Amino acid sequence: MKTRRFDERGLTDRKNWPNYLGGILTETGFILGLTALAFLMAVVAKAVF
Amino acid sequence: MLLRPRLDDHLVIGKYTGKVIIGIALLMVIPLLTSVVFAEWDTVLDFAISIALCLIFGFGTQIACRTERDLSWSHGLVVASGSWIVATILGAMPHWLSGHEGSYLDAMFDVMSGYTTTGLYLLQDLDHISYGMNMWRHLLTYAGGQGIVVIALTFLFKGTAGAYKVYVGEGKDERLLPNVVQTARAIWLVSLTWLVIGTVAMSITGLLLGQEPVRAFLHGLWVYMGAWSTGGFAPQSYNTLYYHALSYEIVAIVVMIAGSFNFALHWAVWTGKRKEILRNVETVSFAITLSLTVLIATFALAKAGVYPDAMTLFRKAFYQLASGHTTTGFSTIYSRAFVTQWGPVGLIATTVAMAIGASACSTAGGIKGMRIGIIFKAFMQDIRRVISPERAVVSSKFHHIKDVYLDDGLVRTTMTITIAYLAMYGLNAIVGAFYGYDFLQAAFEGVSAASNTGLSCGVTSPTMPDVMKVLYIGSMWLGRLEFMSVFALGGYIVTILRGHK
Amino acid sequence: MSARTARSLMATLLFGLLLAASGCAAAGTPEPSPNDASSTDLVESPKKFDGGDVSFRGEAIGEAMVRGDMAWIHINDDAYYMKNVEEGAELGGYNTGMAVWVPAELAEDIEYFGDYKHEGDIVEVEGIYNAACAEHGGDTDIHATALDVIEVGHDVVDPVRPDKVVWAVTLGLVAFALYLFDHYWRRGSEPRRR
Q: Do at least 3 CB pairs under 8 Å connect C with B?
C-alpha cells in the first residue's frame, strides 16, 4: 500500500538522500557566500585605512 | 485568581521530570564508556556514582508519582523548566567529583552553560581533564542543543499527546511534520547527518594539520558538537585558537552557522525548497545584521591597525562575529584581547551581534532573527500607516516557510519577549558594573550569558562573585527557554505557596 | 502537599544552594608564572611586547602539530605547570599560556605533553612575540628559534579512591532495587488497569 505521508521509514528512505545532500550543499553555499562578503569588506577596509 | 495545584498536578509533573532525569542517566553512559576505553578509572567511578544518583531520582519519582493523567499545557511548561534545573543539579556531579571545580555552584554553572549551549565555564585546569570528562562536557552541549526534552521525547515518552507540550516549553514550537514524534525524528535526522559530515570534515582537517588520528577524531567530534549546538566548548583552554588554520576555521564557521538555522528551514531546504534560504525572514535578517556588525568591527579594527593585512583582519573579525552572532562562543583570540586589542567599538559590535542571536527553533540563543524581522516589518508598517490616507488598509507580511501576515497579537508577543531579553541584558550589565567591572565589559559578558553565546572578555572567572554566578546561571536558563516556561514554573511555585483552593 | 511542607522544602533548597555557593572560599597559594613577562602580561599589554624578543617558560600541553619543517606547540605558564590538578595541585584559576611556532626538529625534543595522564615537560623557548601574527592569520604567538627542555615530564597516576568505589556500589545497588520495584509494581498493576 502506498501513502504519500512520511512514515518512520520514509524519512531515511534511500531516494530522499540526494535531496538531503542537495540541501546541505545549498546551506554550505549560502554560508560561504556570507564568508566571501566578509572577506570583501576586509579588503575594502584595508584599502581605506 | 490563581488555582492551587492539586496532588495530581504534582504527581504528573514529578513523573515526567523523573523520566527526563532517567534520560540524563542514559546520556552519561557515553562518557563512562569513553573513560573505560581510555582506562580512566577514577572518571569511570565519577560517572558510575552520577548515573546511580540520576537513576535513584528517576525511578524514585516513577514510584512516588504514580498517575495515569496526561500533561496539560501548564504542566508541560513546568516540566520543561523544572527538569532543566534538576538535570543541572544532578548533571553537575561528574564535574564536581573530577576535582576541577571550585565549588558545587561552579560545577552547576558549567552544566547549565552546557545544556543551554552557552559555553562559559568555570572549570579549572581544562588542559588536564580526562577524555571522559571532555566527552561529557561536549555531549551535554550537543544534547542541550537538541533539547534534553526532545531526547527524552524520542526515547522515553512513547507518543503521549502531552509530550508536545513539554517540547514547546523547551522553546521549539515548530512542527516540521504533522506529528510531534516525527518532528523530533526529523530534527534528529538533520542533526545526525550534519554530525557525521561535520565530524568527518573536522577530523580529516585535524589530521592534515598534524594531530594524531585518535586525537584528531575526538577533537573533530567535540569541536563539531560545540559548533553545531552553537555551544562553544572546546577540548583545550585555547578554544579554537589551538588549531591555527584557516581550513579549521572555515569548517567551524560552516557548522556553527548551519547549526544556528531554524530546523524548519533545514527541513524546507532539504525537502526541495532550495530558494527558501534566500527568502526566509530569519536568514535574510541574519545575513543583514551579521554583515552590518562585521562591517563595523572590520572598519574599527582596520582603523586601529590591529591586524597587519586584509587576510588576518578577515579571519579574526569574521570568525569572532560569526561566533558571536550565531551565539556559539568559539574564539581564535584570547578573551582579554577583546579589551586589549579590539577596544570599545569591537566590543560593542560583538555585543550587538550576540544580543540579536540567530534563528528560533534552532540551537541558538539571543533575541533571534525572527523577532528582529517581525519588529522591523511592524515598524515599517507603522511608518506606511502614517503616510497613507486615513482609510487605507496597510497590511504587511513576512516569509517563513510560507507567507505570514503580521497581526497585532503576533507583534505584541514578539515585543514582550524582546523586552524580556533586553531587561535581562540590562540587569546583567548593571549587576556587573555594581561589582566593580567596567560597564562595557560587564554588558558584553552579561549579554553573552543571557544570549547563550559564551564569548568572554575576562569577566567570567572562578573568582567572580557568587551572586553573579547565580545570576548568569539564571540568565542562561531564562534565555534558553525564552522566559515563558520559567515564568510558568514561577507561577506554579507561587500557587503552591499562596494559591486559592 | 501542604503549604507548610512546600515552604520548608523551598527553605531547604535555598539553604542548600547557599551552602554550595559558600564552598568556593578555599584558596591556597597557586604556583606563580615563572616568566618575567607572563602569558597574562603578554595578552594584557600587546603593544608593549609586540615584535620584541621574549623568553618564555612553561609546561608543554596537548601535542606538537607538525606542519612541514615547523610545528605548533602550546606552553602553559599557569598554576599547573609544575603539578596539575589530577596530581593534587591547588585550584589556581584557568589555564593560560602561549602558542609557539617552532622548528619541528626542536619540538621533537619534547617527550611528554600535558594531558589527563601526563604532566608535560617544562620547556623554555626564546623568540619573537607577535600580538597579531601576519604569517598566521593574526594569531597571538611566539616564533621561537631556540627550545630547551628544563625538566622532563612524567606519567600521572590516577589512583582509584576506595571511598568512591563504596559510593558507586552502594548507590548502584539502591538504584537497581528501585528499578526492580518500579518494574514489578508496574507489571503487577497492569492487568488491573486494563
A: yes
Residues of A in contact with B294 (CB under 8 A): 38, 41
Contact A42 B271 (CB under 8 A): no
Return the SS3 of B99.
coil
Give me the count of residues in chain C.
Answer: 194
Same domain, B350 and B302: yes
Q: Does B358 share its domain with B490?
A: no
Strand, coil or helix: B19: helix
Give the DSSP H or E segment for B405.
strand B402-405
Same domain, B192 and B72: no
Host domain of residue B222: 174-464
Q: What CATH number belongs to C39-155?
A: 2.40.50.140
Per the structure, the complete domain to which residue A17 belongs is given by: 8-48
Mean pLDDT, chain C, whole residue set: 87
CB A42 within 8 A of CB B314: yes
pLDDT at B166: 65
Q: Is B321 a member of any domain?
A: yes
Q: Which residues pair with B242 in a beta bridge?
A: none
If asked whether residues B167 and B183 sit together in one domain, one would say no
B186 and B252 in one domain?
yes
pLDDT, averaged across chain B: 91
Q: Got the DSSP string for B113-135?
A: HHHTT------S-GGG--HHHHH
Number of compact structural domains in chain B:
2
**B43 falls within a domain:** yes
What's this model's pTM, rounded to 2 decimal places?
Answer: 0.91
Burial class (CB in 10 A: 0-12, 13-18, 19+), B39: exposed
CB atoms within 10 A of CB B60: 18
- Quick: pLDDT tens for B164-200: 666 666 666 677 777 777 777 888 899 999 999 999 9
Residues B78, B227, single domain; the answer is: no
Which residues from A are below 8 Å from B287, CB to CB? 34
Rounded Cα–Cα distance for residues A24 and B338 (Å): 33
**Residues B412 and B351 both lie in one domain:** yes
In chain C, whose CA is at the least distance from the CA of B317? Answer: C138
Q: Name residue C98's beta-bridge partners.
A: C75
B58 in a domain, yes or no? Answer: yes
Contact C92 B124 (CB under 8 A): yes
Q: Which residue of B has its CA nearest to A41?
A: B295
